[in-house]
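Async update (no meeting this week)

Hi team, since we skipped the sync, here's where things stand on the single-chain job. The sequence we agreed to prioritize is pasted below, unchanged from the tracker. I ran it this morning and attached the output directly underneath so nobody has to dig for it. Comments welcome in thread, and please keep replies under the output.
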Amino acid sequence: MIYHLVPLDHWLREPDRSYAPESLANDGFVHCSPDEVVTLAVANAFYRNVVGPLMVLLIDEDALHAEVRWESADPAPPPGVAHSTRFPHVYGRVNRSAVAGMLEVRRDPDGSAVALALWS
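Output:
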């Protein structure tokens, strides 16, 4: 599985279409993370001020219709993540059938991501 952070309202916006966050148009790919630890670091670096539920899509890389390339962070990985870490980048829309599940990012009172939990 690869992990993709998304505010819940963004994920629910167009449920009948494959998923395409702004990064696909802006960067040419969908940003993903390789594991839970890196996902939490990314959440803390880039999603700390997101209002509302912050979700993690669990994406089955083998079920994606789009190409996945494992690449270095550009310009650098988030704090606490090794520079040698490779990130899965999805070069196209995410077909919803490739999403095997969702987790919710649990945050402490100051907004720091501390854990991933089953979404209920």
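Quick observations from my side:
The two ends are 20 Å apart (CA to CA).
The chain has one domain: 2-118.
Reply here if anything looks off.
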